[in-house]
Amino acid sequence: MINLPSDEDLMDLSDLFKLFGDSTRLRILYVLHEGEMNVSDISDTLEMNQSAVSHQLKQLRINKLVNARREGKSMYYSLADEHVHTIISMGMEHILEE
Amino acid sequence: MINLPSDEDLMDLSDLFKLFGDSTRLRILYVLHEGEMNVSDISDTLEMNQSAVSHQLKQLRINKLVNARREGKSMYYSLADEHVHTIISMGMEHILEE
DNA sequence: GTTATATATGAACAGTTATTCATATGTGCA
DNA sequence: TGCACATATGAATAACTGTTCATATATAAC
Q1: Is residue A2 scored above 90 in pLDDT?
Q2: Cβ contact (<8 Å) for B20 and A11?
Q3: In a 10 Å sphere around its CB, with 0-12 CB exposed, 13-18 middle and 19+ buried, how is residue B21 labelled?
């Protein structure tokens, strides 16, 4: 007999991985791995539309992959969790191996 | 200055994570973590359409997350890579923590 | 208050994707 | 060869998702 996680956990888990399944969000996570950064600097660094960045940051925030803090007019984002780095590293190992 | 992976690597990486971003494929991977299994048994275990399972297995195979071998009329699938297990475990830790 | 800057948000559109159905291919056996 | 079983595949559909544009909200300085 096979011991599957509950449907709820499976949904949560696939929702989590969906976040990593987009190269834009991966780029944002890579940038934040260097340290916290505000929205305009992220947009400039990645040469992306501010609105697109903001939409993606919202998803990352809701799913607790990043933290946000306000400083004056700016919002600074940072990685929330060491798992983020581990998951990306494992994935990178996989694709680079062969 | 930030050291981003190449665009190609980022695409490969997001494509890899997309595979984990679907609860059907996660269920298949969980089942295969118990050991190799053929397509009909996977379909029965997960109460899924045979065609749907086959389509998903094809994606997993193309992306080298599973191996396939034929035995008579049946095709037996198994996990291809220890990274699969590590990635899922890290994800599960993340969602269960809080 | 007004204005400028920074970020967030809603709606719309285009592109992608999982599932289903029907059918094809492959294998074993009589 | 013919038939049954196992799996794969192509097309169609429905649902989802990322980006853009326009605009709203928030903060600071005046």
Answers
A1: no
A2: no
A3: buried
> Cα–chain-centroid distance for residue A69?
16
A50 touches strand C (CB under 7 A): yes
Residue B97 confidence (pLDDT): 81
| Nucleotide minimizing C1' to CA distance for residue A71 | D27
Amino acid A52 reads A
For the entire predicted model, the pTM comes to: 0.91
Residue nearest to nucleotide C23 (CA to C1'): B51
C-beta atoms of B9 and A96 within 8 A: yes
Q: B7-19 burial, b for 16+ CB within 10 Å, e for fewer? A: eeebebbbbbbbb
Assess contact for A57 and A28: CB atoms under 8 A: yes
Per-residue confidence band for B82, with pLDDT thresholds at 50, 70 and 90? confident
Sign of the Cα torsion A59, A63, A67, A72 reads positive
Distance, in Å, from the CA atom of A40 to the CA atom of A49, rounded to the nearest integer, reads: 9
Are A90 and B86 within 8 A, CB to CB? yes
Pairing of strands B37-38, A66-71: unpaired
- Taking the C-alpha atoms of residue B47 and residue B58, their distance in angstroms, rounded to an integer, is 18
Structure tokens at B40: 């009909």
